[in-house]
Amino acid sequence: MTHMPSFPITQRWPATQPEVLQLYSYPTPNGVKISIALEELGIPYEAHLVTLADSDVKSAEFLSLNPNNKIPAIIDPNGPDGAPLALFESGAILLYLAEKTGKLIGETAADKAHVTQWLMFQMGGVGPMFGQLGFFVKFAGTEIEDPRPRERYINEAKRILAVIEKQLDGQDWIAGLFFSIADIAIAPWIKALSFLGAEEMLGLSGLPNILDYVERFNQRPSVQIGSDVPIARPADR
To answer: What is the pTM of this model?
Structure first.
């Protein structure tokens, strides 16, 4: 028994397959982390498009699932001890899915520690810094005349990319020789630099390890499918 009707979010985004995991998301770097992971893990799921408009993410129904009004969020009808589990924050969801399946997190306690380390690097560094970079080079922040905020985030993004470039020297994936949730967290944000128009200013063409890394990432079937889930209409983007 899944008890899905007990979640208010289902009043606005009803589940047609309440027996499978419900994903509430939008195809941003944070959003596609979860759809890619679900595809990689082979977990059946139903995706619901939650746009970034206040009418969606600040609706009472969505706030009932994530009080921080950010995508993604999930409801797993088959959570711990068979009870449904609602969860938000992309990093927490990735950890939950990896631990639930025993995949994408390595085989040893040391593996898990290293994967978690790089996952936290993305959550605390890559995402916030690249997001602020985008604000100042593409969105409303471009109107701010003071150059210091823009320069700060350009320099910080360059520093972070240098860390990633060095970490990838001699290895295919960020935590070592195996693909993990850390890669699912980091690579979409690197890919987003093209959308932000920031590749040239960050010197991405001079970072061969990162370029090869993104290419390997893009070749995975889970990435090719999950990168456009949920499907957003042009008017929603």
So the answer is: 0.95
